[in-house]
Amino acid sequence: MASGKPIEVGIVGGTGYTGVELLRILALHPGVHIRAVTSRADAGRPVADLYPNLRGYVDAVFSEPAAEDLGACDVVFFATPNGIAMKSAPVLLEQGVVVIDLSADFRLKDADEWARWYGEPHACPELLDEAVYGLPEIRRDSIRSARLIANPGCYPTAVQLGLMPLLENRLVVTDRLIADVKSGVSGAGRKAEMPLLMSETGESFKAYAVAGHRHWPEIVQGLVQMAGEPVGLTFVPHLLPMIRGIHATLYAAVIDEPGDVQQLYEQRYRDEPFVDVLPPGSHPDTRNVRGSNRCQIAVFEPQGSGQIVVLSVIDNLVKGAAGQAVQNMNLRFGFEETTGLQAIGLYP
Ligand SMILES: NC(=O)C1=CN([C@@H]2O[C@H](COP(=O)(O)OP(=O)(O)OC[C@H]3O[C@@H](n4cnc5c(N)ncnc54)[C@H](OP(=O)(O)O)[C@@H]3O)[C@@H](O)[C@H]2O)C=CC1
Ligand SMILES: CC(=O)N[C@@H](CCC(=O)OP(=O)(O)O)C(=O)O
User: Fold this and answer.
1) What's in the keyword line of the UniProt record (predicted)?
2) Residue pair 143/136 in contact by the 8 Å Cβ criterion
């Protein structure tokens, strides 16, 4: 399909932060035609009216989500709040449309667990087994043939990529892993809420959801698969006064002498186009991945303490959402995996 005519793409939720990031990336993708971009609030408005950065690149007009438009697409991205995609995906799948969901609707395999964390029963639990969790670095082959792709969350992407080499090689104690993670405010989406005001988030810094965040079961599910055994994880998210970026500091105690951990990470990610293991002693900076689909990782064993510290950074809207979704689309439709995703991080 990659060498033929462009594939037809639909985006549900085109006015949100991840929706407009999909548009920014897909506008320069040579293999796609954007057929439908939905917004209920802004239906009828040209995309470029709302997002002048896309003037001259995207000539689409926002439309109401309509089954006939979406059903005529080859792939539909859901960039909608949790609980929306699961109501439309079954019909689209029946029509032969590939669904890539940026929300959490298909990430957890257990419907009861989903209901517990997301506060409503799952609308199509029968699809949870089939849905492929779209973290290419661990599941590339299944993504290539999936009908339904659950795009990972932003925190889960940074944490899983950071811990993967340690868990796959059984180098660390798995019952007391710690993920201390910070996010920029765009992670909360484009909505008018008092806690997201600049005067509430600026010049301050806080943890939130320490008692339980809905990304915890998603991360644990992924880590268990990597480790092949139960995993105990303490996950503490924080809100940083910046717009984009996730910085994960991960702690894991080694079981025995771990060998050359730097080399282990370099080997594991040697062929990964979007994971960059930094030289020893580096401290990744979120701004170096801002706007790019890269995850940058550094690994330490400070003071020979037996405690491994991994630093993992991504842009929450790119590798943590829209970029990873396009990476999955590329795999699924036979494009070069990096197509449309070669933007370099913005500095400063
Ligand atoms: N922001 C981030 O960093 C990340 C977000 N995600 C996930 O991606 C999804 C989108 O996030 P984000 O872009 O931040 O969200 P936003 O709140 O910024 O945007 C949501 C979009 O969905 C549309 N929408 C809302 N309700 C409905 C509905 N009932 N039916 C159809 N469309 C609807 C909105 O447009 P309108 O109301 O006009 O229709 C809007 O375009 C969420 O599930 C989020 O959890 C995942 C990883 C990272
Ligand atoms: C800073 C901030 O508020 N981040 C969001 C998580 C990001 C997100 O959108 O969640 P999904 O990946 O599950 O879709 C939060 O904590 O709710």
Assistant:
1) Amino-acid biosynthesis, Arginine biosynthesis, Cytoplasm, NADP, Oxidoreductase
2) yes
